[in-house]
Task: structure prediction
Amino acid sequence: MTKKKAGGRPPKYKNVEEIEKKIDEYFEECKGEVIKNDDGEPVLNKYGMPVIINNRPPTVTGLALALGFTSRQALLNYQSKKEFVDTITRAKSRVEQYTEERLFDKDGAAGAKFSLSNNFKGWDEKQDIKVTGSLESEKTKLDDLIRQMRGDG
Result:
């Protein structure tokens, strides 16, 4: 008797430790690197801070690509796997924290608002407006008002 093969693509990661290692590498790469002089000392800017190159903001899409997924949505789908839900949620929370901190930075606030409202639950600025009554009754009220103004009613 032959064993039936499971359908679908094999999992990208065999265990949590494997994906956590890749996640940590992604966030480390986002930090960039400090430029050093010939003596191995950090080069400082006019404010006395080390000059950093190749740094970039962590993003959900960047995280997805660093983990080998083809899209942000593929990462979100992988997050639904029971064994990876906490790990991926924690990684997304790290991106969310960075993005939230940019709200206090005038240069990054607009992009941060966009990212938070589109990538994380609870950050949208939509307002739900509840309309009561019917359009027909409002039309009748408007018709009555017009007749009164004309002196017809």
Observations:
- The helical segments are 16-30, 60-66, 72-78, 85-101, 109-119, 135-150.
